[in-house]
């Protein structure tokens, strides 16, 4: 348990009057090297110019003269790794606490009263959600579930980008298809929206208006309203099927209607952070570590996307009072981060309060070919199509199965398999296997200290350790904002469960041992179900 190791390391550094060093506590690659390992001696050696082995031995002696020796045994490996082995007493005590406290065992203590907003998906209402949006949705929703479970006050928000040129082009594209379906000859621009869904919307317009739009001055506006509403309804339906809900929907156009964009620009002007050049209004973002200044109002008098984004984030921090804002964007927006943070600093808002997660691209593997995506060219795989192929659970799992910073390849054929090769099936089957055993059990007593002492087999101990480590993976997931750590832990628990099951009978002739093992797998089922719920996946009772 890292939370037991860190205090003794920090106490050692304080006792020796050493400056703090950036050490790590990790899981060793092999069990022979312990349950945990730290590089403290190596990083400290560079500071104090001593042999890391000598430092490690000194640390070991320090620990052995304290109560820490009851919790861990320490071994030292060259060139200076300090390896920690959990004592049976520590394992039993922690596992008993887990089995008794259940959810409370995993909660964070002393949560600061922070109001956190997570803004995710926020796909332009110009086309269906594709699998790239799906990854952002799964990550955002999972993060919200994880942080909320731990005790944070979390608000999930969808920002509707319903202003600007892209919306005009959506209305124009729909109107052109409307005219085309009525038999008129049209020229369809390359930057217009190409998808079949535009034609479907145009067909609905014909049912409502027949050919009357051809003579109406506001025809494009009517087409835009119809297209935007239809697409947003489809997006919400897809999100509902994907087990994603939002607390707030915020419209970009409302920022203009309420003059928030204009007021934000005026505030930046009053602070002296704007200037005019070449007929445009510029923001001095270079004063705040951006690589160049940015345009707020173009030569034609139109606001840039940055202007409304600054107003939107001003609204988040200054009007609605969020203490932390987490924006989840596609990785193609990486160049936008510095300018937005610079704008916040210009407004007097601490840019560290804004965390921007850049989610890497998703590739769908179909017949050994990767499919690239573009909304305007309509070369994408819709999220609903993926869900139809592999199901919501498999889709959500695979989307959060790797670090946000890693590209993700989705192998549809693997995720459709009902076999142990499919990671989602592997975990859900572990839970279902336990439920099947529990149906045959008549052990209803709760685990106690005497029962836990009966669990001495290597596979039992390894299984218990994996349950205790879930707490660390969960807390690390919240700290690093990486939901994939949950999937990593669930796979580990499932692996240890299957190893235990394949070697030992849960229900046997020894009733006390049987009930102890039933108590063990009950706790496993609880942790598996909890972990799956935190990434929006159902724990199956039967497979």
Description of the molecule:
The protein has 543 residues and is α/β, with parallel strands linked by helices. Helix content is 51%, strand content 13%. The protein has helices spanning 2-15, 40-48, 52-64, 88-101, 103-106, 131-150, 165-181, 196-209, 219-241, 252-257, 260-270, 305-319, 337-346, 383-390, 392-399, 412-415, 423-439, 449-452, 458-480, 484-503, 511-534, and strands spanning 25-26, 36-38, 72-77, 81-86, 115-119, 153-160, 248-251, 274-277, 280-283, 294-297, 324-330, 354-359, 362-366, 369-371, 408-411. A five-stranded parallel beta sheet has the order 7-6-5-11-12. Strand 13 (362-366) and strand 14 form a beta hairpin. The longest helix has 24 residues, at 511-534. The model is unreliable at 373-378 (pLDDT under 50).
Query: Helix- and strand-based class?
Result: alpha/beta
Going across the major beta sheet, what is the strand order? 7-6-5-11-12
**Fraction of residues in H or I helices:** 40-55%
| Span of the ends, CA to CA | 33 Å
Keywords for this structure?
five-stranded parallel sheet, four-stranded antiparallel sheet, 51% helix, 543 residues, 15 strands, single chain, 21 helices, alpha/beta
Quick take:
With 543 residues, the chain is an alpha/beta fold.
Please write out the topology.
Elements: H1 2-15, E1 25-26, E2 36-38, H2 40-48, H3 52-64, E3 72-77, E4 81-86, H4 88-101, H5 103-106, E5 115-119, H6 131-150, E6 153-160, H7 165-181, H8 196-209, H9 219-241, E7 248-251, H10 252-257, H11 260-270, E8 274-277, E9 280-283, E10 294-297, H12 305-319, E11 324-330, H13 337-346, E12 354-359, E13 362-366, E14 369-371, H14 383-390, H15 392-399, E15 408-411, H16 412-415, H17 423-439, H18 449-452, H19 458-480, H20 484-503, H21 511-534
Parallel strand pairs: 5-6, 5-11, 6-7, 11-12, 13-15
Antiparallel strand pairs: 1-2, 2-4, 3-4, 8-9, 9-10, 13-14
Helix pairs in contact: 2-3, 4-19, 6-15, 6-19, 7-8, 7-9, 8-9, 11-12, 12-13, 14-15, 17-20, 17-21, 19-20, 19-21, 20-21
């Amino acid at each position: 348990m890292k939370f037991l190791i860190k205090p003794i390391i920090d106490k050692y550094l304080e006792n020796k009057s050493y400056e703090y060093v950036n050490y790590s506590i990790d899981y060793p690659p092999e069990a022979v090297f312990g349950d945990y390992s730290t590089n403290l001696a190596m990083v400290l050696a560079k500071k104090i110019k001593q042999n890391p082995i000598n430092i490690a031995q000194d640390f070991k002696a320090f620990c052995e003269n304290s109560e820490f020796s009851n919790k861990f045994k320490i071994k030292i490996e060259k060139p200076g790794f300090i390896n920690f082995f959990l004592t049976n007493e520590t394992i039993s005590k922690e596992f008993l606490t887990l089995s008794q406290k259940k959810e409370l065992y995993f909660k964070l203590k002393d949560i600061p009263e922070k109001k956190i907003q997570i803004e995710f998906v926020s796909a332009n209402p110009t086309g269906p959600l594709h699998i790239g949006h799906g990854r952002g949705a799964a990550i955002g929703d999972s993060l919200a579930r994880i942080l909320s479970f731990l005790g944070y006050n979390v608000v999930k928000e969808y920002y509707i980008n319903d202003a600007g040129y892209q919306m005009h082009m959506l209305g124009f594209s729909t109107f052109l298809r409307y005219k085309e379906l009525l038999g008129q000859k049209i020229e369809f621009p390359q930057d217009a929206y190409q998808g079949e869904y535009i034609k479907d919307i145009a067909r609905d317009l014909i049912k409502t208006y027949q050919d009357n739009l051809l003579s109406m001055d506001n025809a494009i506006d009517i087409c835009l309203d119809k297209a935007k509403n239809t697409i947003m309804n489809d997006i919400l339906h897809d999100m509902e099927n994907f087990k994603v809900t939002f607390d707030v929907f915020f419209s970009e156009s409302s920022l203009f209607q309420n003059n928030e964009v204009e007021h934000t620009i005026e505030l930046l002007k009053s602070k002296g952070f704007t200037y005019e050049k070449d007929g445009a209004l510029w923001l001095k973002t270079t004063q705040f570590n951006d690589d160049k200044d940015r345009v707020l109002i173009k030569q034609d008098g139109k606001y840039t996307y940055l202007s409304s984004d600054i107003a939107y984030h001003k609204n988040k921090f200054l009007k609605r009072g969020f203490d932390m804002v987490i924006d989840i964007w596609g990785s193609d927006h990486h160049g936008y981060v510095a300018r937005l943070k610079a704008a916040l600093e210009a407004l007097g808002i601490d840019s560290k309060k804004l965390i921007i997660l850049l989610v890497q691209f998703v590739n769908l593997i179909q017949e050994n070919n990767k499919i690239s995506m573009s909304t305007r060219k309509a070369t994408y795989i819709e999220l609903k199509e993926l869900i139809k192929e592999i199901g919501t659970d498999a889709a959500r799992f695979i989307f959060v199965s790797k670090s946000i910073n890693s590209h993700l390849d989705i192998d549809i054929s693997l995720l459709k398999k009902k076999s142990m090769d499919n990671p989602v099936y592997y975990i859900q089957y572990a839970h279902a296997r336990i439920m099947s055993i529990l149906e045959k059990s008549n052990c209803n007593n709760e685990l106690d200290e005497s029962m836990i002492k009966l669990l001495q087999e290597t596979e039992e101990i390894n299984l218990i350790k994996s349950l205790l480590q879930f707490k660390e993976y969960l807390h690390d997931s919240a700290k690093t904002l990486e939901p994939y750590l949950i999937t990593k832990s669930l796979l580990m628990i499932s692996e240890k469960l299957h190893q235990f099951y394949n070697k030992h009978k849960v229900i046997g002739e020894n009733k006390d041992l049987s009930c102890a093992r039933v108590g063990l797998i009950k706790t496993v089922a609880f942790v598996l179900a909890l972990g799956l719920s935190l990434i929006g996946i159902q724990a199956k009772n039967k497979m």
